[in-house]
Design goal:
By secondary structure, the protein is mainly alpha-helical. Helices cover 78% and strands 0% of the residues. It has one domain.
């Protein structure tokens, strides 16, 4: 693992954590685009081109554009229930601490699996601790990019058939887009009926 790769790993994890904590959704879209670029660089520097391009298109372009579109429709101003400088610090410490432990304290885990697990950890953090529906969509997006990094790097290492890897990544991306579109639709519907996009408000919806 080169120094450039190590720096990219830490920057990627930090940007992921910041994306989860930001409350202004246009800024969230910008940092998510940056996150997509960083995860793409991680795989492209190792020589994986097609998986990198798929990751950039889905994580760095399509989903940020969807989030911006939804943010325009709901004009959301409500602050998250659990958000403060402390939660930002906690998210950063959690993300950086997790990737550091995986990289340097668990010898059986290489850097490729370390970054995938660390990003999955940030995605889990978003899904468990963030009631905001858009943040849930971001959590799933981070999960998707973790799978991209994992499959792309290990497929390259073990010389897996390119067609098989493309098929796997395409299926993963298709599932992600379906989940994200559903969550964002629920966000618009919930906001129109309850004036909030907190996931607990779904209990008040009448279908």
């Amino acid at each position: 693992m080169s120094e450039i790769t190590l720096a990219l790993i830490y920057i990627t994890v930090v940007v992921a954590a910041v994306t989860v904590e930001l409350t202004h959704f246009k800024r969230v879209a910008i940092t998510l685009t940056l996150y997509g670029i960083l995860t793409t660089l991680l795989t492209i520097l190792e020589g994986e081109i097609i998986g990198s391009i798929l990751n950039l298109i889905v994580v760095g372009i399509v989903i940020p554009l969807l989030i911006i579109k939804v943010a325009q429709k709901i004009d959301f101003k409500e602050k998250e229930k659990y958000f403060s400088t402390a939660t930002v610090v906690i998210a950063l410490v959690f993300a950086v601490g997790l990737v550091t432990v995986l990289l340097f304290a668990v010898p059986v885990v290489d850097w490729k699996l370390s970054i995938a697990l660390a990003l999955a950890g940030v995605g889990t953090y978003a899904l468990i601790l963030k009631g905001n529906l858009i943040k849930m969509a971001i959590g799933y997006t981070i999960y998707d990019s973790a799978l991209h990094v994992f499959f792309s790097l290990y497929a390259l290492q073990y010389e897996a058939p390119e067609l098989l890897m493309i098929l796997a990544l395409t299926v993963i991306d298709g599932l992600l887009l379906g989940i994200v579109v559903t969550i964002l639709y629920l966000a618009i519907n919930t906001y129109q009926k309850t004036g909030t996009i907190d996931s607990w408000s779904l209990r008040r919806l009448r279908w």
